[in-house]
Every structure is written in structure tokens, then in C-alpha cells.
Design goal:
With about 350 residues, the chain is α/β, with parallel strands linked by helices. It contains 13 helices and 14 strands.
Length: about 350
């Protein structure tokens, strides 16, 4: 049996839920696994694995202005780095080194990848972000600076992985020999749900800002009910029902929704696809990956997108909800078992001493 370190980025719920599923399969197969995470991923994984989960210093975004502020993000991480560096040095010396891992798996967590590279330990990348560096994508010329910035960020996270398992909801040519495309996966709480249409639209605000603007625009569609998450409050304004944070409540609302309005994060897109829900996506400014996600969602007929919430785009979205979901061969629908089969194929080709329960 193998000794595996599974390192997870703390930003975004998708990294943690993906690690939960894959890490559990490693454990079920008899491997010894140590999880490493920061921020929200740390809290999430400790619910299930307790002391098996160790804390690592992780990078984080600044959303204080309602979008990803590059300058504030850099400053926020720089001010925390000296303390974070000490935390990681202790982790590497007290946990990684004596554990002597056979494999490091990283879901966009850079510090463990760099440790593995320096110590010549094989490491495997599993994430959606490396779509930007390993695949051929349709880019708009006007977004060249955002594209270059995002590409630099992804490349600087780490290099030298034995393989890059890139989760994607659409097929696209690969341009890196170590990369393989895999379908999205969804957490068990979503996989157990049966989709229905209770008539409401689910709204999720990642940043929890500009509440008055949301209320003003959505309030113009009096005949449509909106269940609004992200502001962590319980209130009702005309046709908008604001709800407090609830993982179970959100999942239930999502399963019964006519459609979804949200930013263009990969995890929620995957859940919408699994439940066959059309989307109005509002990619966060400063997140080029979200812009790519939003454009491909519209390109494939899975929804529409806009830079901001406005009455015309909501009207266009509502008009399209009665259209059937597309049956396009380019779509990679979420499939947990197919993802795990792809992962096992990669592990076998690399001749690593790791099997997973399929």
C-alpha cells in the first residue's frame, strides 16, 4: 500500500469536495493518506477526517470590492507570508519528511507540489485551473492581458507533475503530453438528489455585495420567485427570498430550481450540469478562468453570461429556460465513476504503486 499526501487549495469549495471523493477512494483501497489544506478546505475536510487533516499556509483572494482585486490580493498574501512560511516549514519537517510519501497529489495547492519537486517525490495534479495551460481554448483578443496574467499564475503555482488530470465540462484539444481530460465530479450530497422544477430560480452571490442592485433588477420580474444565497440573511423582499447559508438547504433548492444565476465557478457549474439546470453566469472580474467557463457555457447552449446583473440579460435567460438542454458531443457531463476510471488509468500508466477502489 502507498503513502499519499493529498494537498488541497483553500479557495473555492470544489477543490475540497473533489479531494473528499478521491481521497476516500484512496483510503478505501487501503492506502495511508494525509490531507493538507487551508481556509475553507481545511474546515470542510476536518469534518470527515479529523486529525488526518493538517493545516498548510494557503493563498487567498481579496473580494472586499465585490471582485478579485489583484493589488489587494498580492498585499494580503505578502503580509501573511512570513507566518505562513514558518507554518509550512514546520509541516514539511514534522509531517512530510517522516511520513516519506510515495506520492503527492495536489489540487492547485502549490507549496506541497514544490516540496515534492525539490525532494524528487512523484506528484500528480488534479484540478480544473490547468485547463488554461494544457489545453487549446478559444480566447478573445481583447482579453489578452487577462489571459496572460491567469496563465502566469497557473504556471507559477507548480510545474513538473508526472501528470495533469484536468477536469473540464467540455472537450478541447490537449497541447501538453502529460495532461488528460476528465469529466467533472460532484459531491455525494448532489449525486443523491433527483432534479425537479419547483418554479424558483436559485441565485448565489459569491461576494455577498451589491444587495440593492440584486433586489432592484430581480424585483422587476414580479412573476418569478428567486431564492437568494450568499448574503447570509433571512429576509423577503417582493419576489426575492433571501436565505441563510445552508449546504443542505442550498442543494435542495438547487435540485428544484428552474435555473441558476451565479458566478462562473467550476464546482457550481458542474452541479448545475449534473442536475440539468441552465445557468446565467456572471464571472467575477479578475478571474479569467471564470470568463472562459462562462463563454463555453453559452457556446454549448447551457446558458448565457454577462459581466453584470442587468434586466435585459435576466429576461434573455428566463426566455431560454423552456428550451431543452443541448445534446452536444462536446459536453463532458459530470460522471464520478468515469473520472475515477480516468484517474486509475493515469496512475497505471505512470507505474505508481497506487490503486483506487472503482
Amino acid at each position: 500500500m502507498a503513502r499519499i499526501i493529498y494537498a488541497v487549495a483553500g479557495e473555492g469549495f470544489g477543490h475540497a469536495s473533489r479531494a473528499h471523493l478521491v481521497g476516500q477512494r484512496f483510503l478505501d483501497a487501503g492506502h495511508e493518506v494525509i490531507f493538507v489544506a487551508s481556509h475553507r478546505a481545511l474546515l470542510y475536510l476536518r469534518q470527515y477526517y479529523g486529525a488526518r487533516v493538517k493545516e498548510i499556509f494557503g493563498l487567498t483572494f481579496d473580494y472586499s470590492k465585490g471582485y478579485v482585486d489583484p493589488a489587494a490580493t498580492v498585499w494580503k498574501n505578502l503580509t501573511r507570508f512570513p507566518q505562513g512560511h514558518r507554518l509550512n516549514r514546520e509541516l514539511f519537517e514534522q509531517v512530510y519528511k517522516p511520513f516519506e510519501p510515495d506520492l503527492v497529489v495536489t489540487d492547485f495547492e502549490p507549496f506541497s507540489a514544490w516540496w515534492a519537486w525539490r525532494n524528487r517525490v512523484p506528484f500528480l495534479s488534479i484540478d480544473n485551473e490547468h485547463l488554461l495551460t494544457t489545453c487549446s481554448l478559444d480566447h478573445k483578443l481583447r482579453d489578452v492581458f487577462g489571459r496572460l496574467n491567469a496563465t502566469v499564475v497557473v504556471r507559477s503555482h507548480y510545474f513538473g507533475a508526472r501528470a495533469y488530470v484536468v477536469t473540464s465540462f467540455f472537450r478541447t484539444p490537449l497541447r501538453h503530453r502529460a495532461a488528460v481530460l476528465a469529466p467533472p465530479i460532484v459531491r455525494p450530497a448532489i449525486a443523491r438528489l433527483q432534479p425537479s422544477d419547483a418554479g424558483h430560480i436559485v441565485v448565489y452571490s459569491t461576494t455577498g455585495t451589491h444587495e440593492e442592485q440584486w433586489r432592484d433588477v430581480l424585483g422587476r420580474f414580479a412573476r418569478q420567485k428567486f431564492h437568494v444565497y450568499g448574503f447570509n440573511k433571512k429576509a423577503e423582499y417582493k419576489n426575492c427570498i433571501f436565505k441563510e447559508a445552508s449546504t443542505e438547504g442550498f442543494a435542495t433548492d438547487l435540485a428544484g430550481a428552474r435555473g441558476v444565476i451565479a458566478s462562473a465557478g467550476f464546482s457550481l457549474i458542474s452541479e448545475c450540469l449534473y442536475l440539468r439546470k441552465k445557468m446565467l453566469l456572471l464571472p467575477l472580474a479578475g478571474q479569467y478562468e471564470q470568463l472562459i467557463n462562462a463563454r463555453y457555457v453559452e457556446k454549448l447552449g447551457l446558458g448565457v453570461w454577462s459581466k453584470q446583473i442587468e434586466e435585459p440579460v435576466v429576461a434573455r435567460f428566463l426566455d431560454r429556460l423552456n428550451e431543452p438542454m443541448p445534446q452536444d458531443d462536446r459536453i463532458l457531463w459530470p460522471d464520478n465513476e468515469k473520472f475515477l476510471e480516468t484517474l486509475q488509468g493515469v496512475l497505471s500508466r505512470l507505474d505508481l504503486p497506487v490503486q483506487i477502489g472503482i
